[in-house]
Amino acid sequence: MQRFAMELMLHTGAGVTDACRIGPGHVDRQGWLRYKRAKTGTLAICPFSGAAAMGPPVWFEISPHLADCVAAAPKHMTFLSTAQGAARSPKAAQQWFSRAAKEAGLASGLTAHGLRKLRSVMMAEAGAPPEQRMAFLGHETSEQTREYSKTADAKNIISGTDFSNFSERVGKNAD
Question: What average pLDDT does the segment 71-80 reach?
Answer without folding.
Answer: 88
